[in-house]
Input
Amino acid sequence: MMRAERLTAAGAELGEGPVWRAESGEIVWVDILRGEIHATALDGSSRLVRQHAMPVGAVALTTTGEILASTPVGLIDQAGAVRSPLAQAAPDVRANDGKPDPAGRFVGGTMTVGDARADAGALWSIDGGEPIMLVESATIANGIAWSTEHPTMYWIDTPTGRIDAFDYDLDTGRVSDRRPHVVMDEAWGSPDGMCIDDEDRLWVAFWGGSAVRCFDGTDCVEMVELPTPLATCPTFAGPDLDQLVITTASIDLPAGSPGAGDMYIVTPGCTGPAPNRLGSWVG
Output
């Protein structure tokens, strides 16, 4: 077992979606409900990049390093212009976790604001044309990752308590053959955000579990302990992508809960892939 150390006292309400941005040597991440995008360097210094007047579920980088925000209306830029719209959603639905796929599409989930309503969310694929619904009837569309060869997409709908695997067609962005990959022990907490390392092992944050767990196939082979319960999402960071950075949340915890909403870091003894970036379609 490893123990993560605090990188920065972020104090996020709902920290999520960390992405390593090599151009600036920073981890870009969101505080979802506040609509904030932050950037944190490996020395712990942080800055507010910008704030939108709506929840921001995730960020995605373009090939030039521009930061786009995933919102209820689609991917938006710094000026708030919609670069690629999302299909019309109910007024109480917001964006949640999402990432570019290996071909440069954006794949992101939705869920209801507040208490997640069963089957009211979905998983969408966006590439500048008509958005494609990959999975309907999700509740909390969360962690997502792709294997390195013959792509398999891994995805978490949190209340199911498992990671599902899909065959993924890189040419079309379509999924098929959904199947359970890892069924979690309820004692671990609820699976949330996720990333993959260079050995195709999945690192999963556990909401309510004070930990990130690593899965090699279906086996839990490593655990990173956190001093706060609401772990939300890990990612690989640093010039050599050999650091694991983890966001957390403070929402629903008593005010002043130590370490809640802060960002943590650990050296996991492995490396991860550089984050996928959006394709040229985004402009």
In short: Residues 2-275 form a domain with the Neuraminidase fold (CATH 2.120.10.30).
